[in-house]
Amino acid sequence: MRRRPRRDEGCFLRRPLGVFPRKRYPQFCMNAPSLFHFTFLLKEISTASWRPWMLRKQQFSLTRLPLFQAAGKKNSSNLLALNEADLKEQFVRGDGPGGQATNKTSNCVVLKHIPTGIVIKCHQTRSVEQNRKIAREILQEKVDLFYKGEDSDVFKEKKAAEKKKQEKKRRARENLERKKHFKEMQESDGK
Amino acid sequence: MRYLTRPLLVRFLGLSSRCVSVGLSQTKTLMLSPKQLSLRQSFSTRAGLVTAVDVVKYWQKVFETNGIPEAQESSEYIVSFVLGAKTLQSLNSKILCAPLTAVQQERIRQLSTKRLQRMPVQYVLGEWDFQDLTLKMRPPVFIPRPETEDLVSLVVEEGSQKCEEKNSGLLYPAAAPHPVILEIGCGSGAIALSLLCKLPQSRVIAVDKEKAAVDLTRENAQRLQLQDRIHILHHDVSSSSAKQLLPWGPVDFIVSNPPYVFYEDMAFLAPEIFRYEDLNALDGGDDGMKVIRTILALAPSLLKDSGSVFLEVDPRHPEMVENWLQTHPNWLLTLCAIHKDFCGKPRFLHIQKQSR
Prior knowledge:
The structure holds 2 protein chains of 2 kinds. In chain A, 31% of the residues lie in helices and 10% in strands. By secondary structure, chain A is an alpha+beta fold. In chain A, strands 3-4-5 form a 3-stranded antiparallel β-sheet, with helices on one face. Chain A has a two-stranded antiparallel sheet with strand order 1-2. Chain B has helices spanning 6-13, 34-43, 52-65, 71-82, 93-97, 102-116, 121-125, 147-167, 190-198, 211-223, 271-276, 290-302, 317-326; strands spanning 127-130, 133-136, 180-184, 203-208, 230-234, 251-256, 303-312, 333-340, 346-353. The longest helix of chain B is centred in the middle third of the chain and has 21 residues, at 147-167. Classes of the chains: A alpha+beta, B alpha/beta. At the A-B interface, strand 2 and helix 1 of A face helix 4, strand 1, helix 8 and strand 8 of B.
């Protein structure tokens, strides 16, 4: 898939967006289905051929960046796109040198969506990268639900699943009743 | 002394109070230090069923009392592992509420005892995750750090882009190219095997000077069924001969997380690192550049034109590497990018070989 800088248009958020410096683009393109793929901005230090990369943000620093579109698990692009500029990410990594000199295992990722205040704490896996991806997926669903309410695909799928479950229970109950009734009939016939 | 109050536990878990149980089973005798014993006595108010959460809290307290860092994380990882999961958060509340068997508790005790000796959690469990792979870990082979996951993402991005460039503008695009990647210092095989998974057409030559690392990479490759696409060599790149690194000719990428710790910083390594990990995998000499220099010196003869070197380094190295390359213009290597890690520190270098 060809990478291109994502622009403001196509944003479904009702909140106004800021102006984004042209040099830096977040690149969230679809990789495997329903997974995000991070790429990075180049910090140019020579006049060698330029490629757009994104510098990873520091903890708590907000680089204003355009939107990205990603297909969520709901198998549609109907989920609201998450604006990376609205996200604040926190890692339990400490202030040490990092890299080889430390061996910290706290790979929990805390992701906050600033406009809505929704916070996701993800520690589903032992990989920071995977936790970041999953946190964004979950956050995207919650933000979609927040803004769209009952119109959200997330809500609709949940309702459908609940309905299915109720239906299954009802059928099981009916089956049980039928069997009970049949048994009673048999017993009364036998007498 | 009541160690953990019921309301706290309920709130922590968001569970109904029915799931909360108190006390530890009194059936086993454990070989505990005096500190642990007194904790145990104070914790058990009455005999009862023990849940995962109880055990996590118990061992967390033991680790804290014994000055083990990341007490909570260590305890959670160990208990989750015994329950067949990666993390506590990934377990559903049903399992968290269910009583643990005696076998499970004993297994947790065995693993926690190792952790009490400051063994890194990755070695305690014998496995760890790197991106979406689970790899075997064994001392003293170097444990992959989370920052290195970003290094893999960088190379994958570059590899995918090269494929687009080659195919774009062609009426009949050629078959996806087969990038050949050389990894210097493969350790457990984390970088090599991740690249093989994410670039399905690629082939990798993985090299390490330690036999234990070569063996572990081979084992991990076999577990992931990737052994056909990887050449694993036991070779020291600082020795003169580099010919055996080219079974498939010049390579598209050289990737490495070389030892880059400054000699003066080696004294400040945590016990988990200096007691159990191979220090040769960390020591980069006085300025941390010893192995980096070796790799850069070898790169021109190993790389194709426009090939790239991707290195993970110390935050102080980018400038040093740039200066070093400028003193060797005949190598035709240019530092074309510096990328930050997820903590915002300059961590990854992209060096490209200019085409003649």
